[in-house]
Design a protein that fits this description.
It contains 14 helices and 14 strands. The chain is α/β, with parallel strands linked by helices. Among the domains are: 3-38 and 79-143 and 218-254, Rossmann fold, CATH 3.40.50.300; 151-213, Helicase, Ruva Protein, domain 3 (Orthogonal Bundle); 321-394, Beta-grasp domain (Ubiquitin-like (UB roll), Roll). 39% of the residues are buried.
Length: 395
């Protein structure tokens, strides 16, 4: 199961971001370390639904469908805030890093308005440079990786040079608890002296760990609180300072308010859209004012940024595709539900991989697959495409 970690220093809006994605009840307070234990819930990514192509209406078993857009579940985790020196145990550092082991990617939530200092304490608007947060989190994560490898590197490197170990495989084993593969290690180690690892300096080791971290734990920067007076200016500056990162201006507070208003029947709003419809009349003036503000925000920024971040990290960074299973009657499952499921799989997954992802028995008894759109018969090695509808035939 894919897991996205929501990270950052305390009091930047991480928990609000998490609640906006999941609508779970979590503690949201204006002080450092309001979050102690990690919160887990289900966010969603957007996929154009295939139901209209068949002239039917889908009945999602999980997630939901709005205006022809399927919202497919992705697990997200909000962890304790990180402060400088976390890799040395400062703040909630050790717990924070341990909680992140199984994350496939990170969303780094920063306060782009610069109204919280490095410890997460509230200060005057613009009194702190949010660029510092991007730099310090990079450093903490790199030192985390470095600490894991450094503990056994000297002994490990000697064994490698004696021919008792295989470098890529053994490094991957060292990081196996972090979902790091041999492919990640092989890409990160390119250009290093693999014949004499015992001669690697700490600087070499740190540089390798930094590269491995970037390859194995991709990160999007959520520039939260962009609606503040200095938000746009800081956002553009950060994009120039960190061109290698995807940095998205966002407002978790606005997204949360929109989703709650939609659930309460005040408005009709689809996450990620640039507008909403007010459906409840005779609203209090205070609520009307809030809705006017949110309409202007969406007009100025195109969206709240929250859904854009989720879509980008899953489909662009992690390279997942969405595949719909067909049933024994083409689109209907055994309970009469039309297109009830949508699965997220790594790009390059095959029809057999898809069968196993649905159920082990389907993989074990796989005979063939059928492309429900074209009725083409497919073998187990068929490479799936985004928005395929696939029926699995078993023995």
């Amino acid at each position: 199961m894919m897991l996205i970690g929501i990270v950052g220093k305390p009091n930047t809006g991480k928990s609000t971001f998490f609640k906006a994605l999941t609508l779970m009840d979590v503690l949201i307070e204006n002080y450092p370390f309001a979050t102690i234990k990690p919160n887990r819930g289900m966010g969603h990514v957007r996929v154009k639904c295939v139901d209209s192509e068949f002239g039917v209406k889908c009945n999602p078993r999980n997630g939901f469908c709005m205006n022809g857009t399927r919202y497919v579940g992705v697990e997200v985790m909000d962890v304790a805030g990180l402060v400088p020196g976390a890799h040395e145990g400062k703040g909630m550092g050790n717990q924070f890093l341990d909680d992140l082991r199984q994350a496939d990617a990170f969303i780094h939530v920063i306060d782009v308005s610069g109204a919280t200092n490095e410890k997460g304490e509230v200060i005057a608007l613009g009194a702190y440079d949010p660029a510092n947060d991007i730099r310090f989190l990079e450093e903490e994560l790199d030192y985390w990786f470095f600490g894991i490898l450094k503990k056994t590197w000297a002994k490990f490197a000697r064994m490698l040079e004696q021919g008792n170990k295989e470098l890529v495989k053994e490094i991957a084993n060292q990081f196996s608890g972090l979902k790091i593969t041999e492919e990640h290690v092989r890409a990160a180690i390119e250009g290093f002296n693999t014949n004499r690892p015992a001669e690697w300096t700490d600087e070499d080791l740190f540089r390798f760990c930094s590269r491995l971290r970037k390859l194995s734990k991709p990160m999007v920067i959520a520039a939260n609180k962009v609606d503040k007076s200095n938000g746009k200016e800081n956002l553009e500056r950060l994009k120039k300072l960190f061109p290698d990162y995807k940095i998205v201006g966002c407002s978790a507070e606005v997204e949360l308010a929109l989703r709650q208003a939609n659930n309460n029947g005040v408005i009709k709003y689809a996450p990620g859209e640039n507008d909403f419809e007010i459906v409840k009349q005779d609203l209090p003036d205070k609520l009307k004012g809030a809705l006017d503000f949110m309409k202007k925000f969406l007009k100025d920024f195109g969206s709240t940024g929250i859904q854009e971040i989720m879509d980008y990290i899953v489909f662009d960074y992690l390279k997942y595709i969405a595949v719909f299973p067909g049933g024994t009657k083409g689109l209907v499952d055994s309970h009469g539900r039309v297109l009830p499921d949508c699965f997220l799989l790594r790009n390059g997954s095959t029809a057999l991989d898809f069968a196993f992802s649905i159920h082990t028995d389907l993989g074990d008894k796989f005979i063939k697959a059928i492309n429900v759109k074209t009725r083409q018969v497919l073998g187990k090695a068929y490479e799936l495409k985004h928005r395929d509808v696939i029926e699995i035939i078993t023995s």
